[in-house]
Amino acid sequence: MFKVLDIRKALAICFFIFGILSCASTDKEELKTAEGIFNKAMALFNDEEYLEAKTTFDLIRLQYPASQYADDAQYYLAECNYRREEYLLSNFNFNMLRRLHPNSPYYKESFFKSCMSYYYSAPQFDLDSKYTLDAIKSMSEFQAAYPSDSLSLIMDSYIQELRDKLAEREYETAQLYRKLRSPASSLIYYDIVLNEYDDTKFFELAYIGKIEVLVELKRWEQAKTTMGYFRILFKSSENLNKIIDLENLIPKEN
């Protein structure tokens, strides 16, 4: 009886080892083709194993750049970066798909997600504005390419948010110069907001700041002219009383 059990146990172990070796052999064979590598990468991707998946997708780029899976691999490689919040890399790889595979069915989505990668890379208002500007430029290009697409309409709110961020940067710089007792320098930055960001919530604030500085510098004529523009542009503003108070500081003979 013990011998029979030992034989059965030995056979079971043999079958188990054979199964492992067979699976390993099959996996090895599958990874010798673009299709096999892609299927393996997609399995990892669907299991949210993005780090391993992007390494496997990269094999297709390197070993089978002309295969039918090349654009799929490029897209999902970028998507792995995107889901891992590696936005500089995802932006690079989505744009790489657009350059290498302009006829790919993934082209438009890659364009959109490259824009969003720029958006998520944009820092808070008081840091370097390069990625913010890049995001606006990229989104504007997308809207020009797909003017009637629903994604273009979505981008309107993103562009507005980014423009508010740029305007806030210039406005806060003007405010900083006032605190540093350099009112003439602050006027430069108020004017940037007035000339470039009239669609933002900082437009009115910049007008008020500029008027306050002009009064402080006793530039009466400029102050009166700017107040006139303010009254025209912001007829219903809750800040009109503040403008009246500033106007009362101007000597009557002026």
Brief write-up:
This protein is an all-alpha fold.
Q: What does it look like?
A:
- Helix 8 (150-179) runs parallel beside helix 10 (203-216) and helix 10 (203-216) packs parallel to helix 12.
- Helices cover 77% and strands 0% of the residues.
- It is mainly alpha-helical.
- The chain is built from 12 helices and no strands.
Q: What is the share of helical residues?
A: over 70%
Count of DSSP strands: 0
Helix/strand-derived category reads mainly alpha
Assign an overall shape: elongated
Q: Describe the largest sheet.
A: none
How would you spell out the order of helices and strands? HHHHHHHHHHHH
Number of helices in the DSSP assignment: 12
Proportion of residues in β-strands:
under 5%
Low-confidence stretches: 1-5, 20-26
Mean pLDDT over the residues: 88
**C-alpha end-to-end distance:** 119 Å
User: How large is the radius of gyration?
Assistant: 31 Å
What descriptive keywords fit this protein?
elongated, 12 helices, mainly alpha, about 250 residues
How would the blueprint of this fold be written?
Elements: H1 2-30, H2 34-46, H3 50-63, H4 70-83, H5 87-100, H6 107-121, H7 130-145, H8 150-179, H9 183-196, H10 203-216, H11 220-233, H12 240-247
